[in-house]
Write a structure and sequence with these properties.
Two copies of one chain form a homodimer. The first copy, chain A, has 365 residues and is an alpha+beta fold. Chain A contains eleven helices and 20 strands. In chain A, the strands form four sheets. The first copy, chain A, has an eight-stranded antiparallel sheet with strand order 14-13-10-6-5-18-19-20, covered by helices on one side. At the A-B interface, strand 1, helix 2, strand 2, helix 3 and helix 4 of A face strand 1, helix 2, strand 2, helix 3 and helix 4 of B.
Chain lengths: 365, 365
């Protein structure tokens, strides 16, 4: 076994999920994530945590959804009971075909997701962490050779997370003290309210309310969004390429949308429910260990010089205790490059220009 | 996909587990049983059952057990809650190495199994069915080519179960009316009480209290075993070959044991707990579609011309309501060939001689 697989497992179990003896852990294992699952099992045994492995396969999901009449039972009791008794949910992604569910209709996905709301909530109530094992399928998605992709992935995952957390704390402080964010770039002029919101210093650990490995972003839950935004980073959503998605917001809600490619997928997402037309997240990438787009949101959205917005569900950790935030069965991130002709303002003050933050050398206010 | 995979899934879901809309189903998927899992998912979607897939990997189990200090938590709440809310548990076996846990100590296995008693009971309280997807690893175990093994496996699985059930009902009637069974063969002269026991007509369906696919045996729960038995069919147990295991019983309990090979494994099993030294099952193979030993108990014990006995846990379905039967953390089947110089008697009447039953043509009483 590549020593980096073991290091990945150790970071996931210790730094990310803070697993201790007696924790009830679910490991969701992708079909090609077996090797990482073995390494994680070793770490869990070592710590005296309790392991149940589930199998997460897009091909199984597709077969099930294609065959089902669409009248899904609400929150099946066995899966709900499992998650309600789970302390830690580790998602070890790694499939064999990133387009494995491409021919499942948007309507069928929506019905399935909508029927599983409490299951989703129960999972989000655990100390959950999503990561991926570098697979050939993800290498292909990134247009990279397998060995090259593994180097890329471990460079992003095996970082000095404590030091990155300190760096990101500076951006969190600016957001926590601000009321309104404005993002200006080509095809984009968008304002969002962030009063009373708490930004998350997403340092790849539940101790920071951060649930992705790799991470390396600062995010918050915006409201009352106004204006237009263009997402110029292409990506694959539900098995289809989307390119140059434009959204127009009024009073927090999408009132118009368009795309050079994949507009139908965006339309499907927006129709999921009420909350799918509102933003659940504004995120600012700060992981400069990620040096290219690989068409995988787990990595792309953390990359320096990028900003992303998510349609759908907001994370509770960004919200005041008395506010529930945007609710939806979906959380779909879309990405824009801010390395050129771009600026991010908080209450009129530029805090990032062309990718450089005001607390970094070379910042030109 | 080989059409037989779909047929296997359909038999499993309809004939074996009797799955209906709304059933909460757990599918335990082996690493190389993916294709069968996809076919089963399609069947479950079709019927409107609720699917949760778990991942059953010996390599994960090994990594976990090897790393753990051995002080296992009793029945972790998340796994127990899952199984207590499960209607149907389908085990789709299919690993990559039948010796994957060979270096795990017997003590560690025992501790683990003993700590998971309620979880095991909850699983046995579902409409559980164990089957396997024919894999290269199982082909190797059987000393067969992969394509040859697939033909073998599907010949055993895709049978006319209703007609076999009718045939087996004749043996069940003989056992249900009997008080004492005697098995005589080379190295074997064993008597067992079966008063008040109910034999199971194991026709590969929960409707017959039968939980294996393939099946094709009639079994009951013996008591007060006396005498000696030699298991002359070699098999792999816990990754090690055992050959010519001899057990000596007094008052229902093993008082001496020996083997030409693998005696240590038998010793480990016997030390699991009190119940591991008593018999939980007497089974008589009647699936004549299985034409050879393949070192896989799921198939071997169903083969015509064989009788097997299991150390450990008895199945409730064989027992009177007021009796709990032999209890143990293990259930380990051992097999003897009865095709030559052998007879099976019930209350002094020969019911099988050299593999032929008294209700079959050519029986020589």
């Amino acid at each position: 076994m590549d020593e980096r697989v073991r290091e990945h497992a150790a970071v996931l179990v210790d730094w990310s999920a803070r697993i201790e003896a007696g924790d009830n852990v679910v490991c969701s294992v992708g079909p090609d994530a077996h090797e990482l699952a073995v390494a994680v099992a070793e770490e869990l045994g070592n710590r005296g945590a309790n392991l149940l492995a589930t199998y997460s396969s897009d091909e199984i999901t597709r077969a099930y959804l294609q065959a089902h009449d669409g009248d899904f039972e609400t929150d099946p009791a066995h899966e709900l009971a499992l998650l309600e008794n789970t302390d830690v949910y580790l998602s070890l992604g790694g499939g064999r075909n990133t387009s494995a569910t491409a021919d499942v209709s948007g309507e069928q996905r929506r019905s399935y997701n909508t029927a599983r709301r409490e299951i989703r909530e129960a999972r989000l109530d655990t100390r959950w962490v999503s990561t991926v094992h570098p697979t050939r399928s993800l290498a292909q998605q990134a247009n990279m050779a397998y060995e090259e992709y593994r180097d890329f992935a471990y460079d992003a995952i095996l970082r000095d997370w404590e030091s990155l957390a300190e760096e990101m704390a500076q951006l969190k402080a600016l957001l926590d003290n601000g009321d309104e964010v404005r993002l200006v770039s080509e095809g984009t002029d968008l304002t969002m309210r962030i009063d009373d919101r708490t930004a998350v210093n997403s340092a790849a650990s539940v101790a920071y309310d951060s649930h992705n490995l790799p991470s390396g972003e600062v995010f918050t839950a915006p409201a009352a969004t106004e204006g237009a935004v263009t997402f110029d980073v292409p990506m694959t959503l539900r098995g289809e390429t989307v390119r140059n998605v434009c959204l127009e917001f009024e009073a927090g809600e999408v009132v118009d949308y368009d795309a050079d490619q994949g507009a139908a997928v965006i339309g499907d997402i927006l129709e999921t429910d009420e909350g799918a037309r509102r933003l659940g997240e504004l995120g600012i990438g700060m992981n400069r260990g990620i040096d290219r787009y690989t068409d995988n949101i787990l990595f792309d959205e953390k990359m320096g010089d990028t900003v992303h917005l998510a349609l759908g569900r907001a994370y509770d950790s960004c919200l005041p205790d008395d506010e529930s935030g945007n609710d939806s069965a979906v959380h779909v991130d879309l990405l824009t490059d801010v390395s050129e002709d771009s600026r991010l303002e908080i209450d009129g003050t530029v805090i990032q220009r062309n990718g450089t933050f005001r607390f970094e050398p070379g910042f030109d206010g």
